[in-house]
Amino acid sequence: MKGKLLLSKCTRLKCLNLCNYTLDEDVFDLSEFICLEELSLEDVTMKGKLLLSKCTHLKCLNLSNCTIHDVVLDLSEYVCLEDLRFKNITMKGKLLLSKCTHLKCLNLSNCTIHDVVLDLSEYVCLEDLRLKNMTIKSKLLLSKCTHLKCLNLCNCTLDDVTLDLSECTCLEIFLCNKVTLTGTGRLPCKQLQMLTFVNSNLGEVTLDLSTCPLNQFPQLQSTSMEDTYLKDALHRLDNINNCMNLTLDNVTMSKESKVVFCKSLSQCKKLKRLSIKNVDLCDALLSLDSVEYVDLDNVTMSKESKEVFCKSLSQCKNLQRLSIKNVDLCDALLCLVSVEYVDLENVTMSKESKEVFCKSLSQCINLQRLSIKNVDLCDALLSLDSVEYVDLDNVTMSKECKEVFCNSLSQCINLQRLSIKNVDLCDALLSLDSVEYVDLDNVTMSKECKEVFCKSLSQCKNLQRLSIKNMDLCDVRLSLDSVITFVNSILIM
């Protein structure tokens, strides 16, 4: 909407909300609106000045996504202001907030303010602070924000910051992604529920949780540290009694830090989900007793570390899902008892390790989904009786292994989805009776194997989707007449 807005005599106005509006006035003067309590100019384009000098009763000010070419915004006397939102705004003037001590919510995300003094040390009522994608060249002081519940510093540039949250005992969410901190950091936050470090450099920061007494973090359920440099900070999780989810991605730690961290993690009894990616655990010993979900990707461990880790998983009765990618397990023996989901990709194991692993899978009655990619199973015999989903890609098996594997799939009444890519099945006979989804790509089979396979598909009443690529079916007949009414998708290339 465009045009002039005439409000000169509406001086008793308490609430003004303009959205997606273009103001043509040279000056948008609200300085006489002394009763105004709520002002929202979201997605408003202003060609002139915005004057708010006497609106000292304002409680809520929202200028999100607002374009203001010339602004003088001195909010230092706005003692009643509780909610201030400047998301996605560019300001060429100063932002002064010295006396807005009743602020509860301050959102300056994606905000460019050329000259800002952001001293929040006296903001005792502040509960929600969001400075995402913001550059702050002055100090960020939060020492007395004891009611702070949410702090978002994602993609925030903090040139000279002392981040001391030691008194913020009510903090529930702390997001610190792609942030470089050069001061000290303390986090004794009793109510913390989410702690996230992504692409962050904490090299010079002492972020030591070990000084806190047991049960100091009763609410912490999720901790994420990704692309984070911890230098020599010692991290212990045994004092985070209810920590359930932990994510480490591209985290750099010293040798001592790894040992302390893994030791405390091994004692974290309530941990349910653990994800470690692009981390060198070196000689640190990691033992997991009660975890339900484990995801390892490009993790380096010593021989002893692998043996301890695999032994603990083998004894973990609660383990339901295991994903291991780009890891050399060497001679470590991994035996899975009750797992439901297994995903292996580019994993190296010794001959004995493969045999023990495949034997345990064959005896795992709870296994529902199996995905193996870029793995040489050698002579290890893999038999699946109750699995529902099978995905093989670039898997090497011996002749006997193929026969045992295909025979077990042919007898698997629960099988619903089968995907085989870049595998030579040789003379192994594969017959499918109840499968719903079939995806074959670059699979080599003998003539007899093709005939048995195609005949079984022709009689498969549950078949809904069929995809066959890069296979020679010239010498066999594939008839889907009896099942075509059930099939939703067919792709043969």
TrEMBL record:
Example of a GO cellular component annotation carried by this entry: endomembrane system
Q: Could you tell me which InterPro entries the record lists for this protein?
A: LRR_dom_sf (IPR032675)
Q: Where in the cell is it found?
A: Cell membrane; Endomembrane system
- On whether Transcription regulation is a keyword of this UniProt record, the answer is no
Keywords from the UniProt entry: Cell membrane, Glycoprotein, Membrane, Receptor, Signal, Transmembrane, Transmembrane helix
Matching entries from Gene3D superfamilies are given as: Ribonuclease Inhibitor
UniProt topology in membrane: Single-pass membrane protein
What name does the UniProt record give this protein?
A: Uncharacterized protein
What is the species of this protein? Sinanodonta woodiana (Chinese pond mussel)
